[in-house]
Design a protein that fits this description.
Blueprint lengths: L3 H8 L6 H28 L9 H35 L8 H24 L7 H37 L2 H11 L8 H13 L7
Bound molecules: fe (ii) ion (2 copies).
């Protein structure tokens, strides 16, 4: 898959570092996750009785909770946070990347709040259930809006700025480090994302 950003820079014969290709590939999968999360929010808000969650929707919510914790946080955000200090060590202004860490904290806070709502949904408390569903939808909506803006800003501003300070050897070093944080590519998560998409009525891309 080639993003607009990759195509644009390829057209100017600028070599895209491997770390940037990996992060942009992860962002493409992130976009699919955020689209499915948006469908989850819409369907939760459209529940006829406000509290009975259909099994497909429930499955999608469970996968989203898993991906928030394992793909977003422990893989993608952790890898970016390991890569940025290497660019700083090579001369990038640390203040120019401060917003990345703040956004990650914001995203983790939304994900944590959605996880609390998920536990309440599963607690068997009939009185609390509609309130927990409402909170799940609101926190997920916050997460979606934040990360859409965030990923685009990284693609267009952060990664090219990092690349300006990094040699090919630095790029190799970053790939070496981040390959020990998560999978080398997003393939282990693709089928899971596809299943979440199908659960909310989105046809996965071929
Ligand atoms: Fe990020
Ligand atoms: Fe990112």
């Amino acid at each position: 898959m080639v993003s607009n950003q990759q195509a644009l820079r390829a057209a100017t014969t600028e070599k895209l570092p491997a770390f940037e290709q990996l992060f942009e590939q992860e962002h493409l999968l992130t976009e699919r996750i955020l689209d499915a999360a948006t469908a989850i929010v819409d369907q939760l808000r459209g529940l006829p009785d406000g509290k009975t969650i259909p099994s497909d929707l429930y499955s999608a919510m469970a996968v989203l909770i898993y991906l928030n914790e394992n793909f977003a946080d422990q893989t993608h955000l952790a890898a970016e946070e390991a890569a940025i200090p290497i660019a700083v060590a090579r001369g990038m202004d640390p203040h120019s990347a401060a917003w990345v860490f703040a956004d990650h904290d914001q995203g983790r806070a939304y994900a944590k709040a959605a996880d609390v709502a998920w536990r309440r949904i599963n607690a068997g408390d009939e009185t609390d259930l509609p309130h927990a569903i409402d909170d799940f939808a609101r926190c997920t909506e916050g997460l979606v809006k934040m990360f859409r803006y965030h990923a685009e800003r990284e693609d267009h501003r952060l990664f090219p700025e990092m690349a300006r300070h990094l040699s090919e050897e630095d790029d190799d070093l970053i790939m070496h480090i981040i390959s020990q944080i998560g999978p080398k590519d997003v393939s282990p998560y693709i089928s899971l994302v596809s299943s979440m998409e199908r659960s909310v009525g989105i046809e996965p891309p071929s």
